Amino acid sequence: MAEAYPWQAELWQRFAGRSQHAHAYLLHGPAGIGKRHFAERLMAMLLCQRPTAEGACGTCKSCLLLAAGTHPDHYVLEPEEADKAIRVDQVRDLVGFVSQTAQLGGRKIVLLEPAEAMNLASANALLKSLEEPSGNTVLLLVSHQPSRLLPTIRSRCVQQACPLPSQAQAVEWLAGALPDLDDAARRQLLQLAGGSPLAAVRLHGLGVLEMRAQVVGAVKKLLKQQLSVSQVAESWNAVPLILLFDWFCEWAQLALRFQMTRDEQGLGPEDMAKVVQYLAQKAPLPRVLAIQDWLLEQRQKVLGKANLNRVLLLEALLTKWASLPGAG
To answer: Helix, strand or coil for residue 151?
Structure first.
C-alpha cells in the first residue's frame, strides 16, 4: 500500500497509533484530497496480521489476499455507475456480509464511498449495521458532502475531517505528479480545483486549462459583440456542462462580492478578474442576483443528470450573461 499523502501524515499517525478502533468512521472533506486513498490504507492496516506504525506489512496472508482482490473479510460498496445512487439491495448485500463471521479470524472491514450516494431507503437499511455491527467489524464511510447524510448516519460514526493540504504542500506534490507542466500552470490547475491536488490532476487529464482558455476567450468576445451567442455555444461542444456552470456560478458570485466590498483582491482567477470587475460595475445588483439564482438552479439540474437540451441551455445562459451590463 502506498504511503499517505504528505498532508495526511499527522492524521495517519493518530489512526495508526490506536490500539482500539471505533466500529464506524466517517471520513469527510472536499473531493480530491485523498480520502479514498486514506480509507484504503486504513482498511489494509486493520486487516493486516502484522501491522506497523507505517501501515500494513504487505507480506502476510491477509495483505497478499487483499492485493489480489480476494480477501474474504473486506467489502467495498460504491455506486454501480458513476454519479448514480447506492441502491437498497446493494446495502442489503452488505448487511449480509456484516452479519457473517470473519473467515480469517480477524476483523471485517467495509469501505463505503461516497456515503452521500445512498438514498433514503439504502441509508435506513445501513442503520442497524451501524448501531449493532456484528463481531469485529469496522465500517469506513467516505463522504465529500457529509451534510447530505442522514443525521442518524452521522451520529453513529466517529466523524473525522480529512485535511486539505496547504498551498505549499499541494504545489510541491503537483510538481512530482505533473512534472511536464510549469509552475504557473500547476498553480492555475490547483486554483481551478479549489485547492484539491488530486482533483487538479483529474482536471489536467480532461484538458481543463485548454478548455478554460477557450471559454474565457469566447466570453470576452461575446461581451465585445465579436461573437454571437450561437457561435459561442457551438464552440463549447467539448466542454462538460458541469465545468461551464461551475465557472459561471463562480463569476456571478465574485461579481456580487465585488459589488458588496469593492475589494479588487477578491476578483478570483486572473484570467477573468477584469471581466468580473467590469460586469460588477456595469450590471444592476438585482440582475446579478437573478442570474446567480438561475445558474444555481440549472447547475443542480446538470448535477441531477436531468434531460437537458444542451444547445438551448447554453444559448439561454449566454443571452443572460451578455445582457448583464447595460441599463437596469
So the answer is: helix
Q: Which of 138, 151, 155, 198 is nearest to 174 (CA)?
A: 198
pLDDT for 328 equals 43
Q: Is 283 exposed, middle or buried (0-12, 13-18, 19+ CB in 10 A)?
A: buried
280 phi and psi angles, rounded to 5 deg: -65, -35
CB of 92 within 8 A of CB of 82?
A: no
Name the residue among 310, 292, 322 with its Cα closest to residue 218.
Answer: 322
Cβ 324 vs Cβ 223: under 8 Å: no
Q: Residue 96 has which C-alpha cell? A: 449480509
In tens, the pLDDT along 89-147 reads 999 999 999 988 899 989 999 999 999 999 899 999 999 888 776 778 999 999 999 99
- pLDDT exceeds cutoff 50 at 68: yes
Cα–Cα distance between 134 and 204 in angstroms, integer?
A: 43
Give the pLDDT confidence of 233-251 residue by residue, as tens digits. 999 999 999 999 999 999 9
Q: What share of the chain is helix, strand, coil (3-state, %, to 5)?
A: 55, 10, 35
- The answer to whether the bond into 114 is cis (omega within 30° of 0) is yes
Instruction: Dihedral sign for Cα 218, 223, 225, 226, please.
Output: negative
CA distance 197 to 164: 9
The CA-atom distances, in angstroms, between 16 and each of 2, 45, 106, 284, 313 are 15, 8, 17, 55, 50
Cα distance between residue 82 and residue 76, in whole Å: 15
Sequence-distant (6+) residues with CB within 8 A of 133 are 23, 24, 98, 139
At residue 326 the predicted structure's pLDDT band, cuts being 50, 70 and 90, is: low
- Taking only the tens place, the pLDDT of each residue in 184-194 is 999 999 999 98
DSSP assigned state of 226 = S
How much of the chain, in percent, has pLDDT values that exceed 90?
83
Q: Three cell numbers at 82?
A: 458513476
C-alpha cell at 141: 464511510
Global pTM reads: 0.83
Phi/psi region, residue 71 (left: phi>0; alpha: psi -120 to 50; beta: rest), is beta
